[in-house]
Fold this sequence. Notes:
Blueprint: H1 11-22, E1 36-44, E2 50-59, E3 64-74, H2 84-97, E4 105-108, H3 121-129, E5 133-137, E6 155-161, E7 177-184, E8 193-199, H4 203-213, H5 221-237
Parallel strand pairs: 1-4, 4-5
Antiparallel strand pairs: 1-2, 2-3, 5-8, 6-7, 7-8
Amino acid sequence: MKRLHSWNLSYQQARDLQRQLSRKVKFIPLKKPPELVAGLDCAFSKDGRKIYAVVVVLKLPDFEVIETKNSTRKVTFPYIPGLLSFREGPACISAVEKLKTEPDVFLIDGQGIAHPRRFGLAAHLGLFLDKPAIGCAKSRLTGSYKQPSIEKGAYTLLKDKKKDFLKKNKSNQDDTYETIGAVLRTRDNVKPLFISVGNKCTLKDAVDITLTCAVKYRLPEPTRLADKMVAKVKKDRNPD
Length: 240
């Protein structure tokens, strides 16, 4: 676990930090298939003052639940599109710190580099945790794509304009865009997921692991179970 920065930041400081830290994300192939895969997800209390995070660790290939931990934190950062990791990150890190097992890779309900500043929640957590991390988002935040075919496993590339593109190079339009993720069909004829690198893996790794973990549902098992568990934590701590 790395301590990258304080969470007491202004909005502009947070944006500047995203641009700075995005350059530290590593795109390196996994050395071997993961055995322990963790899912991370968050939920907020009804009054919006608290955030709950759950991490669940599963063992492949049978998806046996090895360990689950949760954390409750006060919300200290407002809802600002593009800065959600500063709102959700502290609770996620607090939950992971309680683990006794060490996951090989984290699947996170959020964006990796498929983000306007190439630094979504999965990238942010990937650097903090210093582990392979995959952004597995239900919706697009930025970029353009063509719909993949309807079969499970089909995907298209998610592309966005390069941030350092010089206007004088407009003669070659292909040079204006970079690949930031994949739009992946995890079940036949269901809405795709938006997969992107968070840290220490390649896009191919991210797609392959997501498909391996998407056994019955649209969501891969680690994030699906984390979503289910965090909903229970929220209900238990916010009784009607």
